[in-house]
Amino acid sequence: MSDRVILGVDLARRSKCGRSYAVVVLNETRGTVERFPSISRFRLIRMIKRLKPEIVATDNIYELGNDKGRGDGSLAEFLRELPSRTKLVQVTGGVRRQPLNRLAKRLRITFNRFNPLDEANACALLARDGVGDEVLFFRDKTQIKVSRARSLGKGGWSQKRYGRRVHAAVKERTEEIKDILRESGLKYELSVKKGFGGYVSA
User: Fold this and answer.
1) Fewer CB within 10 Å, N side or C side of the chain?
2) What DSSP assignment string belongs to 5-60?
């Protein structure tokens, strides 16, 4: 059985030469903790590839990349480098984020928020206890949105008849797109907002 390893990571320093990170390696199986006050992004990625941790935990995923886009040093590039079974977890949450100190206090984890090594340790402990949201990287994903192109008007019977026709047209076009995707052998997920006589959008 392989060791259960969790990496806690926090930004230690940002400079013209690049970023360095404080890293805590929590080995649950062996009951050991290793601390690295400052390592480069390159060394961090090498460490992750060597240890193949179950989780890489951080309080801010964008500290791991220089931007939200593409290219060397980006978050997308970092995600591509992760081993297939390694999860990147933002312990502070995704859509509904919470401060790290509040989460730590809830689980009685004490740390110095001005010490990156302490923050990295808190991230590892929180992830170990199941706190946080996994960050997923999607390749070659396209969103197709079908909706009406103009306002339905101010109201009345004619507006309702027009609305039914528009909703029916949106549904019809959605079905056409589904047929094309199916015939092409492409996988897709469909989400619709229903309206009277069809779809408001899809």
Assistant:
1) N
2) EEEEEEEEEEETTEEEEEEEEEETTTTEEEEEEEEEHHHHHHHHHHH--SEEEES-
